[in-house]
Every structure is written in C-alpha cells, then in structure tokens.
Amino acid sequence: MRVLAMLDGTLADPDGLHIRVDDLGLTRGDGIFETILVVDGKPRELGPHLDRLERSARMLELPTPDRAAFERCAQVVIDAWTGPDEMALKIVYTRGPEFGDGTPTGYAMGVPIAEKVLRNRVAGVRAITLDRGFEPSIVASTPWLLLGAKSLSYAVNMAALRWAESHDAEEAIFVATDGSILEGPTSNVVVADGRTLRTPPPALGILRGTTQGALFRAAERAGWATKVEPLRLADLTSADGVFLASSVRKITRVRMVDGRPLPEAAELHAELSALYESEYA
User: Fold this and answer.
1) What is the pLDDT of residues 151-206, one digit of tens each?
2) Which of 212, 211, 66, 206 lies closest to 149 in space, CA to CA?
3) CA angle 225–129–194, rounded 5-degree value
C-alpha cells in the first residue's frame, strides 16, 4: 500500500514514472526529506517537520519550500490512505533536474511502517557505537558538511545500519571522535536517569528531534526534568534507561550497547511511551 501525491496536490501512480533520470536528488543526493508519522489520519509534529525542512533547505541553499503546497500535498496523501492505522508520510524536496529550468522537485508519499520497526518498538533493540569521524568543534566552521541537515545523502546512515545488523545488532549510535554521543542513523538518543531525561544538543551536528521534542514536552508537564547536554558512552551504560526516538520508532528502548546489557527498563519504557502518546490524546 503506497500513496503518492505531487507538490501540485495531484495524486499519482506510485508505480509510474515521475522523476527525471537527471534529477539531482537522484544523481547526487542533492535534496532534503522528512518522515512524519500519521496515526488514524492525523500527522504528528507536521509543523516541526516542515520547520526542519525549511532549515535543511537553508543549509543546502535550496529555494524556500512552499509550506502551503507541502501541507496540501501531505493532506492529499492522508485523505487517500486506506492502509493500516499508522503510516510513514515521506516528504521529499530536491534541487530538480540538472538540465531543467531550475524548478525543484517535490512530492509526498505514504508507506506502511516496516514490520521490523513495529517489532523493535515492543522488543527493544541491541545497538553498537560507531565512530562518525568528526569532532564537534568543527561543526560551526564547516557548514558545507551539512551536519544537522536532513539531506537525501543517507548512504552513510544506511551503511551504518547494515554494519550494525551484520554485527548482531539492530541499531547503531554514532559517536564523535572526542567520545561525545551523537545520534542514531535515523533517530535521537534519549537517556533517563531517575526523573531526568537527557539528549545531546544539536550544536554537536545532529538533527533536531521532533519525536524527542514531543517526549520532552510531555515529560516536563508530568514533572520530569529535561536536559539538552553532551553525553558520553559512560552515560549510556550507567543510565536507568536508554531510548531511541524517531517518528516511526516512537520511543524504542535500547537493551544492549556494544554487547553490554542495559537495564531492562520495561516499566520506564511504558511510562515514557505513555507520556509521548499523551501529546496526541
């Protein structure tokens, strides 16, 4: 089950031909995207996702995305969806064809949530740490590295997940060369210590998390403390619970890091998941 809508708001055949072979999003990964969770026809954090799309566009020096057009395009997909109660809504925006007239390419597509993601939400995941190959001190002075942009250049992220899977893990957690915890290839890291939640800061060159932000808002209303601050590997192994947050994962617990078991944290996971869901009750 897939639903495709082009940026002009028209539905299109997802098996049809729509992207030119010289589109720079295809040939060079020169574009940006967002993945939004839709539950029972309601998109979660659509505004923050579109804010992040605009921020990524500025970093790539792309034309400012037409927000109203993307909102309309997203709603067309949602209205046409007849699949499971949950879907992943993917919004894509590229620089357009290399030999075109300069018009960007934009579309939205609804797809089912992968079965392994649904399983991992319940069972938790094993993770390994992988060196991301940069020090956080370079982030501000190297904007061309696009650290913190959600670009289509996801080959490294996908390679990291394949590496994890080939080493008896379901997920990876990137670490900077100075030992700072960064993020997962497609998720944010959240650590729970007592009644405090912590996550690494975007200044380290990581993506601002929409799901992590929703969790923190709900936790604060429930009396939890939240902190956006640097983390080290020792913070993961000593925590009461470690979690990966993303649109499709929601709040997924990490039960092992680099072969080292972490606290089971089943009750804690249930509490945090309930807090997250309370944002949309």
Assistant:
1) 999 999 999 999 999 999 999 999 999 999 999 999 999 999 999 999 999 999 99
2) 206
3) 20
Q: What range defines the domain where residue 14 resides?
A: 3-113
In this structure, the answer to whether residues 57 and 167 fall within a common structural domain is no
For residue 275, how far is the Cα from the chain centroid? 19
**95 and 134 housed in the same domain:** no
Whether 109 and 172 share a structural domain? no
Rounded distance between C-alpha atoms, residue 158 and residue 156, angstroms = 5
Domain limit, last residue, from 60, 95, 113 = 113
Contact between 38 and 110 (Cβ < 8 Å): yes
* CATH number of the structural domain spanning residue 43: 3.30.470.10
Regions of the chain short of the pLDDT cut 50: none
Instruction: Identify whether the C-beta of residue 189 lies closer than 8 Å to the C-beta of residue 180.
Output: no
Instruction: Tally Cβ neighbours within 10 Å of residue 195.
Output: 12
